UniProtKB/TrEMBL annotation:
Cited SMART domains: PKS_KR
GO cellular component, one term: membrane
Keywords, comma-separated and alphabetical: Oxidoreductase
Species annotation: Actinoplanes italicus
Protein name: Ketoreductase domain-containing protein
Family from the record: Belongs to the short-chain dehydrogenases/reductases (SDR) family.
Chain segments annotated as coiled-coil in the UniProt record: none
GO molecular function: oxidoreductase activity
UniProt-listed Pfam families: adh_short
Length: 263
């Protein structure tokens, strides 16, 4: 049974581009009100102008700052908005060997990918469970299934998101809230403008709209899975890595990713 988003309000972080903006368009088309959050307020306002017929609130905020999760929850409460669905999409990666990474950049990455996501989820999960007809999607990555040399912090942060979200899936069963960790592979978004072009390991990238459409289709199932790997090729790769074992997988990933650093 398809999720009924009419009379719902969905909070989307990282909504100014990529998957976040596409989720906003898909959900608006299905009648959901929206709270769109990102640093780039101009882009948020432009996106909101494209979505007539639904109530859209934009909030400019850098979620990589300490305490941003609590600050966002307070800002939404001040506006009297009742959030019934949540898509935690904000995040970024750093590509390169760990010992050469900028320490502040690492801190910001962990704050955004892990701390703020957790704080935001905690702030809204009680009303989401009480509503019982919405969704909670935390955007992880196939990088969360195996350690990734030259993406060490990013992969570790997404492993946290994957484990955390699957646990919430189990805890939320019977409430009506559909919880899922979205695990795309390399996708055509601005992620690589930040992380660096070699961060895809030279693999082909999936269209962002395909990732969003597959996610919406999975959420419409009667019993959505705790996590979704988008794309047959990505599912095969993750299955093969589990069969190969940690040592072989790390060796193969190490060769592939270090080649992209040398380019």
């Amino acid at each position: 049974m398809a999720v009924d988003f009419r009379n719902q309000t969905t909070l989307i972080t990282g909504a100014s581009s990529g998957l976040g903006a596409l989720f906003a368009r898909r959900l608006a088309a299905r009648g959901s009100g929206l709270v769109l959050v990102a640093r780039r307020t101009g882009r948020l306002e432009s996106l909101a102008a494209e979505l007539p017929g639904v109530n859209v609130t934009t909030i400019g905020m850098d979620l990589a700052q300490p305490g941003a999760g609590a600050k966002l929850a307070a800002a939404i409460a001040e506006r009297g908005i009742d959030v019934t669905s949540l898509i935690n999409n904000a995040g970024f990666g750093t590509h390169g060997v760990f010992h050469e990474a900028d320490p502040q950049r690492i801190t910001d990455e962990i704050t955004l990918n892990v701390t703020s996501l957790t704080e935001i989820t905690r702030a809204f999960i009680d009303p989401l469970r009480a509503h019982g007809g919405g969704v909670l999607v935390n955007v992880a990555s196939i990088a969360g299934f195996a350690p990734s040399p030259t993406l060490a912090v990013y992969a570790a942060s997404k492993a946290y998101v994957l484990s955390f979200t699957e646990a919430l899936w189990a805890e939320s069963r019977g409430t009506g809230l559909r919880v899922m960790a979205l695990c795309p592979g390399a996708t055509e978004t601005e992620f690589f403008d930040v992380a660096g072009q070699g961060a895809d390991g030279g693999t082909s990238r999936m269209r962002a709209d395909t990732v969003v459409d597959l996610t919406m289709r999975a959420l419409d199932r009667r019993n959505p899975p705790p996590s979704l790997i988008t794309g047959t090729r990505n599912r095969i790769m993750m299955g093969a890595s589990r069969l190969a074992g940690r040592r072989v997988t790390l060796a193969a990933l190490g060769v592939m990713m270090r080649q992209t650093v040398r380019r």
